[in-house]
Amino acid sequence: VSEKKFGGSYEIENEGNFWGVTETRPYMRLLSMKAEWLIAQGKRHNAMELYEKLLRLHPDDAIGARLPLQVLYLEFKEYDKFIELQERFSDGFSVHHHYNYALYLYMVQAGEDELDEAMDEAIEFNPYVLPYLQGKKKIKDQYLTRYNPKDESGATVYCVDALYLWHQQYGIQKWLKKFS
């Protein structure tokens, strides 16, 4: 029903300002929830496309589609898209921004100094993430209605989205030990 109302020509006419049209907000929230569901179903590529659609509909990203999208870009090795998204939302006040950049540098085998500097900045921004990455702490099942990107709640939100990708990287645990 929502696709019929807000898709097609309506979508074309209002692209870029969907969040500004308040009647579309429930639709955008549904798209975001559908993307989360797709991830849970293992349909990560479909979720990536849906998050891209959300950013196309509202480039300022009031719904936060960029956060899981960064992780998906890294997973699918869409490095140019990842960097573009990092630069587009470069305010630096996001736990995803800092840790995903360090992960990106690790994945593309950046130089040790650059890699260590990025990880130091990430840890300085939110030190609570590191124990999860190192496997010293497990994510507790909890529902957060809000979070602070610089505290334990921000670490939890980030790790729910990205921990699997960190654990898939060969040799990363050895590198992470130096930050203990």
Structural summary, described in words:
It is a single chain. The chain is an all-alpha fold and 180 residues long. The protein is 64% helix and 0% strand. The longest helix has 16 residues. It starts with a helix and ends with a helix.
Write the layout of secondary structure elements.
Elements: H1 2-6, H2 8-14, H3 25-40, H4 44-57, H5 66-75, H6 79-88, H7 95-107, H8 112-125, H9 130-133, H10 152-167, H11 172-177
Question: Which key features would you list for this structure?
Answer:
single chain, 180 residues, mainly alpha, 11 helices, 64% helix, 0% strand, elongated
Short description:
64% of the residues lie in helices and 0% in strands. The protein is mainly alpha-helical. Helix 4 (44-57) crosses helix 5 and helix 7 (95-107) runs antiparallel to helix 8.
